[in-house]
Specification:
By secondary structure, the protein is an alpha/beta fold. The chain has two domains: about 290 residues, Zn peptidases (Aminopeptidase, 3-Layer(aba) Sandwich); about 110 residues, Alpha-Beta Plaits. Helix content is about 35%, strand content about 25%. The protein has 13 helices and 15 strands. Strands 1, 2, 3, 4, 5, 6, 13, 14 and 15 form a nine-stranded mixed sheet that branches. Bound molecules: (2S)-amino(hydroxy)ethanoic acid and manganese (II) ion (MN) (3 copies).
């Protein structure tokens, strides 16, 4: 069994979701804390020195020559998941990084630069709503006060949840010392699409990440009794929300290569025999051209206001996060292409910490084939042979960057 597969098998029971299926590993949950402990154990077993920085990012250092922690080659990914997500989104990159360290150690590779394996928290934004929260804090891409006040669905703030686990929320924020240590960042990730299946290749080199953002759309109407309120006397925000979901789909379809999704909707109060007083829904919109994303969202907002007026409701839209389109560092990518000449270039519609870090340091990505291309679903899969090919490709790329 390839080491990557063995490592993933080790954590296969952590955060299994019996209700949704798949895995639910929200940041700072028991499952995610268990995964952090697993990572620390595996890294220390390999002789890496592990530290947790003030933003909750784990750094496992391999620096046998005791070089100054500057210009390091960093790899890694995330361990948190979407609700009911798959086994590989995030953990494949972390397990592959550990397996790549094994290979480099077996090869007796000499390190002219330090290596670190990093684990970024809250990449999915599944608990506190902002994706890549750890790398955004590290790079200063989110105001620390706003981050501290982000609330999870139960109303718990990030500051409260972090303090409960011994972190000091007052120290959250851009960390120039941590950033100064990074020479480049190379993230391996399951592809989350069918590009490699169609190309018949196990591994690709990333070319770009679609710009993408999240907006909260709220419809407010009149909460009332489901049995005593006549149909003509209603101002039902659930009806407005339902119409808006279809309008989102239609508006995205009208723009080639746009994607827009409503994956989460919350009626308040949410009773079976209650006409909701308000409904919140979350919009995820993406496009290779950030201006098109902006125009798409503006059209959706205008449609929502029109629908609200027709339903006797009001509508409001708030941007929660946005990540501009990322084009990976050409120089770094070129060095990796020289090592992996058979690996095709592939863009992705999925966001990654490499995209956020790419605003301040050279970053690149490797993608590993997923037979059905399904992700953010329990059906996400990666063949053992492809997982191993990914770890070898990562080791080869890291070796070329480290020597
Ligand atoms: O949402 C994304 O694109 C990523 O999986 N966080
Ligand atoms: Mn994901
Ligand atoms: Mn991911
Ligand atoms: Mn009643």
């Amino acid at each position: 069994m390839p080491e990557v597969t063995r490592l993933l098998a080790d954590i296969a029971d952590v955060g299994r979701d019996a209700v949704r299926g798949g895995w639910s590993r929200p940041v700072l949950s028991t499952a995610e804390l268990d995964l952090r402990a697993w990572f620390v154990g595996e890294a220390e077993r390999r002789g890496l020195d592990v530290e947790t920085d003030r933003n909750g990012i784990l750094w496992a250092w391999w620096n046998p020559a005791g070089l100054p922690l500057r210009d390091a080659v960093v790899t890694g990914s995330h361990l948190d998941s979407v609700p009911g997500g798959g086994e590989f989104d995030g953990p494949l990159g972390v397990a592959s990084a550990l397996a790549a360290v094994d290979l480099l150690q077996q090869r007796g590779s000499s390190l002219a630069r330090p290596l670190a394996v990093a684990v970024f928290p809250e990449e999915e934004g599944s608990r506190f709503g902002v994706a890549c929260l750890g790398s955004r804090l590290l790079t200063g891409a989110i105001d620390p006060d706003r981050a501290r006040g982000l609330r999870d669905p139960e109303g718990v703030t990030l500051a409260e949840a972090a303090a409960a686990q011994g972190f000091d929320p007052s120290s959250f924020g851009r960390d120039d010392e941590a950033l100064a240590r990074i020479g480049c960042f190379l993230e391996l990730h399951v592809e989350q699409g069918r590009g490699l299946v169609d190309l018949g290749q196990p591994v690709a080199i990333g070319s770009s990440i679609l710009g993408h953002g999240r907006w909260r759309l709220t419809f407010a109407g009149q909460g009332n009794h489901a049995g005593t309120t006549l149909m003509d006397d209603r101002r039902d925000p659930m009806v407005a929300a339902a119409r808006a979901v279809v309008a989102v789909r239609d508006a995205a379809r009208a723009r080639p290569d746009a994607r827009a999704t409503v994956g989460r909707l919350r009626p308040v109060p949410g009773g079976t025999n209650v006409i909701a007083s308000r409904v919140e829904l979350w919009l995820d919109a993406r496009h290779p051209d950030d201006a098109v994303t902006t125009a798409l969202v503006a059209e959706i907002e205008q449609l929502a206001r029109q629908i609200a007026a027709e339903e006797g409701c009001t509508a409001s839209l708030v941007e929660e996060s946005f990540s501009v389109t990322t084009v990976f560092d050409e120089g770094l990518r070129g060095r990796i292409e020289a090592v992996l000449p058979n690996a095709p270039l592939l863009g992705t519609g999925a966001g990654h910490d490499a995209g956020v870090l790419g605003t301040v340091v050279p970053t690149a990505m490797l993608f590993v084939r997923s037979p059905d291309g399904i992700s953010h679903s329990p059906e996400e899969s990666v063949e053992d042979a492809d997982a191993e090919a990914g770890a070898v490709a990562l080791a080869d790329a890291l070796e070329s960057l480290l020597t």
